[in-house]
């Protein structure tokens, strides 16, 4: 592994003026399309735009998605960690990185997108956010459709898609770290298991370890003008019950039953 981080300036080849102008024309075409899309009240931005059946923040993520649809080419060896925003613990992403990149020399921490509302937007109450979430009007669209889509795909292509639940990761972290390693073709060796490599990964990526890193306790997220510590809650299964009413919980259960009926998927 590289012993030093490579700066962003060294990662990109400078573009010519003609290339820059061509890219700007492409992005202007995206903006023209975005201006015509259906809109609804946003969570972390003024509006969300509906595009191809999903809801996106117009100028933060949607332009990049349009660019990727036109230009990105995946490789058979690519590995993706897919999650609906904020539905995966901060400890899960680093555990994947460490599992892929043994020996343990370098850990690059990257924040998941968390919907911190900018101070210049009008307040969004929990009740309003809950209603929008139930209707699927949330960044990236319906949570249930997202989960169900990948569940069905994992049944159809079990060798290509590994479906993991956060609850299972929390209940049996050692087992599931091994599952991840085996799935990507990098199983732990007998020597690694005996010398505590798996346990070390779990220790380094524990919620408490992540939460108490200096950068996460006192660092500052300039994009949202807020401290990094707001990205961390309790890291516990079922903590949502402490913030929603019984009526809200019942409604979520009913939506899940309707969405997942007949799929074999249980939460």
Defining key terms:
267 residues, mainly alpha, disordered N terminus
Can you describe what's shown?
By secondary structure, the chain is mainly alpha-helical. 46% of the residues lie in helices and 6% in strands. The protein has 13 helices and five strands. The strands form two sheets. Strands 1-2-3 form a three-stranded antiparallel sheet. It has a two-stranded antiparallel ribbon with strand order 4-5. It is globular and about 55 Å long. It starts with 7 loop residues before the first helix and ends in a 7-residue tail after the last helix. Mean pLDDT is 78; it is low at 1-9 and 104-114.
Q: Name the structural class.
A: mainly alpha
Biggest sheet, in brief? 3 strands, antiparallel
* Dominant shape: globular
Q: How are the strands ordered across the major sheet?
A: 1-2-3
Q: What percentage of residues falls in helices of 4 or more residues?
A: 40-55%
How would you state the average pLDDT, rounded?
Answer: 78
Oligomeric assembly = single chain
Q: Summarize the helix and strand pattern as letters.
A: HHEEEHHHHHHHHHHEEH
**Radius of gyration from the CA trace?**
21 Å
Strand content: 5-15%
The low-pLDDT segments are 1-9, 104-114
Instruction: Give the termini separation.
Output: 39 Å
Total strands: 5
């Amino acid at each position: 592994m590289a012993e030093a981080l490579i700066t962003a300036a060294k990662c990109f080849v400078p573009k010519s003026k003609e290339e820059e102008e061509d890219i700007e024309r492409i992005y202007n075409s995206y903006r023209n399309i975005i201006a015509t899309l259906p809109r609804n009240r946003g969570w972390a931005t003024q509006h969300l735009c509906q595009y191809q059946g999903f809801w996106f923040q117009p100028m933060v993520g949607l332009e990049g998605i349009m660019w990727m649809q036109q230009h990105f080419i995946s490789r058979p060896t690519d590995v993706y960690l897919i999650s609906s925003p904020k539905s995966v613990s901060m400890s899960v992403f680093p555990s994947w990185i460490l599992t892929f990149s043994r020996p343990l020399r370098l850990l690059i921490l990257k924040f998941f997108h968390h919907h911190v509302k900018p101070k210049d937007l009008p307040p969004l109450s929990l009740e309003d956010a809950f209603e929008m979430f139930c209707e699927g009007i949330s960044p990236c669209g319906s949570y249930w459709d997202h989960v169900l889509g990948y569940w069905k795909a994992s049944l159809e292509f079990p060798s290509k898609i590994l479906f993991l639940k956060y609850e299972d990761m929390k209940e049996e972290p050692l087992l599931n770290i091994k599952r991840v390693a085996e799935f990507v073709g990098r199983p732990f060796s007998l020597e690694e298991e005996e010398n505590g490599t798996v346990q070390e990964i779990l220790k380094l990526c524990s919620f408490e370890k992540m939460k108490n890193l200096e950068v996460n306790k006192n660092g500052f997220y300039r994009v949202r003008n807020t401290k990094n510590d707001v990205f961390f809650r309790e890291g516990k299964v079922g903590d949502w019950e402490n913030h929603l009413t019984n009526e809200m919980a019942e409604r979520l259960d009913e939506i899940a039953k309707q969405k997942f009926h007949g799929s074999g998927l249980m939460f």
